[in-house]
């Protein structure tokens, strides 16, 4: 394998997998990134066996092939690399050589390669029907529900976000989260009906959704889909697949009082300022 790629493009792709490859698992290969040549692009793939990311980036391919190297080490090298274009090539299939594409910059690294055949591809997305959502809206919902944190507890309703389309109203998408003490419910209304085939709600992994946030940073539109027990988010040439959690989410309708007898309307900025002052004590 041998190719040249623009540094900013490569750094952007590899940065999005750091959360996935830095998680502790029982399999050392999950700390690595799989790089493959795919036509006129390269594929950057990583998985922790629960969440997988794949992005395709334009590159000048000289020789086809693939290589798997430790993700964190690769990212540390390329983020401060002293050249705008980086050349990567495998040496006898055992080492990945990283150098500048020009003959002026004198910088060269060699990283030991892992066995690329050890990688597990979570699910195929070919022929999968996708449904388009506003990326900023989805990002806002995830950020607000992740306030409850990501606990070490393995109970699905604590380490997951509940996503549903309320029965009888296909214009609303709803997301909920709880830590056992707090419950957050967020509704967003769309002008058009959401024809997402969801008969009941699903529980999304909080860890997986923290990775999806990186996909949504640029705004625009994002496509989502479901296959078997997986949630898929796709934006441009980048895709994240994360396993749905099995279990039951609490009946939030029993928790939220209805109807509410007393309502207090207050300016958000003033209330936030008040709470910050109270937290000093």
TrEMBL record:
SMART domains: POL3Bc. One of its GO terms (cellular component) is DNA polymerase III complex. Residues 133-251 form the DNA polymerase III beta sliding clamp central domain. Keywords: Cytoplasm, DNA replication, DNA-binding, DNA-directed DNA polymerase, Nucleotidyltransferase, Transferase. Residues 1-119 form the DNA polymerase III beta sliding clamp N-terminal domain. It is found in: Cytoplasm. Its main location: cytoplasm. The keyword Cell division does not apply. One of its GO terms (biological process) is DNA strand elongation involved in DNA replication. One of its GO terms (molecular function) is DNA-directed DNA polymerase activity. It holds the Pfam family DNA_pol3_beta_2. It comes from the Bacteria. Belongs to the beta sliding clamp family. This is Beta sliding clamp. It comes from Candidatus Magnetoglobus multicellularis str. Araruama.
């Amino acid at each position: 394998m041998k190719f040249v790629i623009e540094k900013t493009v490569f750094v952007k792709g590899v940065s999005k997998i750091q959360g996935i490859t830095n998680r502790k698992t029982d399999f050392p290969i999950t700390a690595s990134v799989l790089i493959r040549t795919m036509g006129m692009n390269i594929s950057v793939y990583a998985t922790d066996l629960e969440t997988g990311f794949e992005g395709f980036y334009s590159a000048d391919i000289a020789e086809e092939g693939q290589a798997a190297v430790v993700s964190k080490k690769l990212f540390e090298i390329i983020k401060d690399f002293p050249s705008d274009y980086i050349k990567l090539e495998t040496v006898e299939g055992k080492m990945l050589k990283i150098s500048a594409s020009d003959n002026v910059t004198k910088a060269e690294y060699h990283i030991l390669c892992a066995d690329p055949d050890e990688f597990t591809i979570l699910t195929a997305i070919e022929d999968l029907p996708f449904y388009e959502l506003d990326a900023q809206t989805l990002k806002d919902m995830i950020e607000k529900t992740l306030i409850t944190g990501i606990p070490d507890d393995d109970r699905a309703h604590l380490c997951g976000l509940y996503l549903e389309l309320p029965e009888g109203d296909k214009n609303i998408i709803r997301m909920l989260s709880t830590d056992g003490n707090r419950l957050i419910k967020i509704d967003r209304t769309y002008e058009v009906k959401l024809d997402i085939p969801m008969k009941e709600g699903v529980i999304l992994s909080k860890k997986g959704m923290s990775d999806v946030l990186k996909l949504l940073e640029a705004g625009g539109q994002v496509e989502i889909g479901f296959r078997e027990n997986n949630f898929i988010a796709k934006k441009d040439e980048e895709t994240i697949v994360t396993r749905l959690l099995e279990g039951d989410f609490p009946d939030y309708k029993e928790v939220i009082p209805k109807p509410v007898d007393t309502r207090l309307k207050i300016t958000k900025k003033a209330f936030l300022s008040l709470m910050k002052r109270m937290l000093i004590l």
